[in-house]
Structures are given as structure tokens and as C-alpha cells.
User: What shape does this take?
Amino acid sequence: MSEANQRLMEQGSKLQAMNAKLTETDRLKSEFLAVMSHELRTPLTAIIAFAEILLAEGETLSSLQQEYLQDIFESGHQLLSQINDILNMSKIEAGLVQINYNQIDIQEVLNHLMHSISPLLSKKGLMLSIEIADIPPIVADREKVTHIFRNLISNAIKFTPDGGKINISATLVNDQEKLSEVVVKIQDTGIGINKEDQKHIFDKFRQVDSAESREYPGSGLGLALARNLVEMHGGRIWVESEADRGSTFTFVLPVIAKGC
Ligand code: ADP
Assistant: This one.
């Protein structure tokens, strides 16, 4: 073998070793983030629960105290949902995610979510309409489907100025050729997204870089995670939007998820 070939082989195995080390470092980083986010969730959940207990005391508190508690409750929820996004994304990247299939009722998932979402809606004076067709229970992971809904609805609330409208609909599509699917649409009258930005918003950490979008806090993980979770169920997700006219996010889930 020539000297040049020998050198090429040595460089090749060095690159292979470096690549393996980088993959391992990346896995350890994701594992660290998963553990950390879990540790952060525990005290935060307690803060939210105690704020809720105190809020339930109602009349014994002054209106200023109630207002402060409401702020603790809402900010706590916001922080918890961002930590949940980091936790879930790092778990997915560390290969630690499992899907727990259950029979779930879309209407029931939404009812449950309304508890944390209603205060945000009324604070901005947003009108919400929900239209759920007659849909049988679907076989999917309840926690993950809730997470998809939460991320899309919180975005709709976040990016819709005061007084706007949000519509959530779910319909059943029966196709002879394929398995039945549930089509969910979350439509808002918010700031919208231009065509160029629509190509990137489902990527990790990507946020629209405009003066309007920058006004709103966020980690840029919500949609990437929603896409991951939808695809894990064998579904798909997309956006249709026009700047200043609002957005419609649609996701489709098979009634019986892939791999069941
Ligand atoms: P973030 O934490 O920033 O909300 P996401 O991944 O959920 O991260 O969303 C990525 C970006 O897509 C947002 O920063 C925003 O620019 C844009 N976006 C998402 N949903 C909407 C929406 N309903 N209306 C307008 N822009 C949106």
C-alpha cells in the first residue's frame, strides 16, 4: 500500500473516532437536559399547585392578592410548558421517548386543557370557538396529543392581538383506501407568517425574525416538538398563513396510530 493510502486510512479512522465522540457528547447533553428539566419541573409544579389552592380561597384575599396569585399561576404554567418542551425534545434526541397508546377522546383532551388556557384567553379578550365532529376515540398517546394541542393553541393565543378570534375544529376523514384519520385545525386571526418563514418554523429554535414576532417570548421549540410528536404517531402537520391575516395549523392523526 502506498504511503498516501496509509495516511488516508489513518485520517479516516481518526475522523470516525471523532464522530463517535461527538455523537456520544450530543447524547450526554440531551440526557443532561432531560434530567435537569425533570428536576426543575418538580418544584415548579408545587408552586403552581399552591397558587391554585390559595386562589381557591377566593373572597378571603384582597383583589390585589388575587391578581398577584393569578400572575404566579399563569407565569408558572408558561414556564412549565417551556420546560416541558426542552424536556421532551432532549428525551426524543436521547432516544428515550416511548409512546403509550391509549384510547383517547379529542373533546376530553381539549376540555382538560381549557383549565390552563381559559385565563390566557380572557386576559387578551380573545374569542374561542370549538367545533368537534362526531369522532370515535382514537388510539394515541394522551400526554403527547395534549402537548401538540397545547403548543399550537398557546401559539395561536400568543400571536393573536387582543380582541382576535381562534377556532379549533376536528373532523373525521374516512377514506376507503387508507385508515381513517382525524384532521385538527387551529385557526387564528393573528399576525400571520410570510411564505419564506413558513419553510423554517417547524425547525428547532427557529423563530420568525420580525419586529412583531420578537415582541413575544418563546424558545422556538414548540413547533419542532409538535411535528416530532405528530410524526411519531404516523401523522403530518403543516401551516397555511398570510402575514397580517392569521394562520391555520393543521395536523392529521390516524385513528389507530402506526405500530399499534
Ligand atoms: P416559540 O416558542 O417561539 O413560539 P415555536 O416553535 O412554537 O416557538 O414557533 C416558532 C415560530 O413560528 C414563532 O416564534 C413564531 O415566529 C411563528 N409562529 C408559530 N405559531 C404562530 C402563529 N399562530 N402565528 C404567527 N406566528 C407563529
Q: What stands out?
A: The longest helix spans residues 3-56.
